[in-house]
Amino acid sequence: MKKVVAVFCLGVSLTGALAQGLVHFANDPTTLVTYQAWTNGVIGPFVPIPANNPGAFYFGLLTAASPAGPFTFTGIYATNSADAGLFGPASYTPTVPGWAPGASMFYEVAGWSASLGPTFNPVWLTGNLGNFGYFGVSPVGLSVAGGHTPQARLSASVSGDSIVISWAPSAGTLQSSPLLGVGEVWSTVGTANPARITISGDAKFFRVLPAVYVTPNLFGPASLPGFGLWTNGV
Known about the structure:
- The chain is an all-beta fold and 234 residues long.
- The protein contains no helices and 20 strands.
- A hairpin with a 2-residue loop joins strand 13 and strand 14.
- The protein is elongated and about 85 Å long.
């Protein structure tokens, strides 16, 4: 008679149980932000936001479950850099509340001039800026957040001559080892969830390695183009 001896280990986690995904929140020279320069009461053509004036413009990241919205501000900010048309910095990789690693979300970026204040105001999305300023919203993008999935919770049941192991979150790789501690050797069982494993008389220990997702660039090829900020001219 075969005996089930299975011990579950905590899944390896690098980001914690409430993991938040990562994104690169910056643009590049191929995706410049432009604005309608207001000079002597005349609205000019769209040109890149000016160089050598960092902090003159703010940018905020908004996300939604649908391309039609509603889009919600994530609390992620950036400012323009000293280079014309750019914001970031290029290395800025924030964690995004409400956007889990490996999850797909629709997103857009709002940009506004410092004359409107440093804090995003959702009223601006209606076209009401109040004071004189510049404001604009990018096209809608779709991406998958980077980072590691949170620690998995494992469960098991016996079905015939097999043990069925499942885990949540559903991503990750199931591994097994005949022992723990000195001499432990972890072997990959697979990524199928649930996993069906034939019962043997040997003890086995199980764990789930988190799934790892590449941190996406929100601007650039195959993502978002640049966008323009309009002025209310008041």
